[in-house]
Amino acid sequence: MATLRDIKRRIVGVKNTQQITKAMKMVAAARLRRAQENIINARPYSKKILEVLSHLLELEGNSNNPLFAERKVKNVAVVLVTSDRGLCGGFNMNIIKKVEELAAGELREYYADGKLSLYCVGKKGVDYFSRKDYKIEGSYPYIFTGLKFDFAVKLVNELKRRYLSGEIDRVIIVYNEFKSVIQQKISDEQFLPVKPFEKKDGSKESFAEFIYEPDKSTIIDKLIPRHLNAQMWKVLLESYAAELGARMTAMDMATENAKELIKSLQLTFNKERQAAITKEILEIVSGANALKES
């Protein structure tokens, strides 16, 4: 049975933990505000580029650019975006489970034949899949410490190079899309070949008529790199904002749990202390009675 000293020591330990989780929640909340601003600013740009490309393709018909062409899929690459640190609930495991579901389901044939390769963005994904039987083509830990647009461009250039050379025929990105502080949505999107923008009901977006100069094909070729870079940058920003939201929620729950545990331990401490005092009083009374009898 725990002594009063043990219970008191545990209460102090839980209080220290509560201070840490509370501080982590405040740090995540401060960073989340800026991350939300970044993603809100990036969304319209990436969406508009995709809309313009879709409109141009609709007018131009079949583009000659190979990044739009559908071809027989022989090799698949999956880019999974996790965090560099833990303590954010099920944020990382949800992504990992989604990738494993794809490997066991839709991409089972490619995984079995060794034609499924992974690009792990974030330390948690790197650590997990490096211990498993997966083919890892790219490892990018600690990129969220100082997230920069240059990294998105670098990763896109690597994927384009392998796609154009025929080493991979399809690229899928799996990441957590930021919805709110308490909600993140797991998304698995096709990155290459580029798919035209569609409405939620599946119909193509309608556009007003524009005059393009110099010509549609040239503009398409110029916009494709910008579009891919913007989409990858948006994915990274979405994942980072979702990570901060998940960490903020997890630390808030941990703080509340610590509060409840402190209450429970304090009640136990008071009961044990009361029992000890009662025992001491009984011993004193018993001793006094014994002296009287003697």
Protein model, in words:
The structure is a single chain. The chain is α/β, with parallel strands linked by helices and 294 residues long. It has one domain: ATP synthase, F1 complex, gamma subunit (Pyruvate Kinase, Chain: A, domain 1), CATH 3.40.1380. Helices cover 60% and strands 13% of the residues. The relative contact order is 0.18.
Task: Please summarize what this structure is.
This protein has six helices and five strands. It is of the alpha/beta class and 294 residues long.
The oligomeric state is single chain
What is the CATH H-level superfamily? ATP synthase, F1 complex, gamma subunit
Count of folded domains: 1
Give me the strand/helix succession. Answer: HEHHEHEHEEH
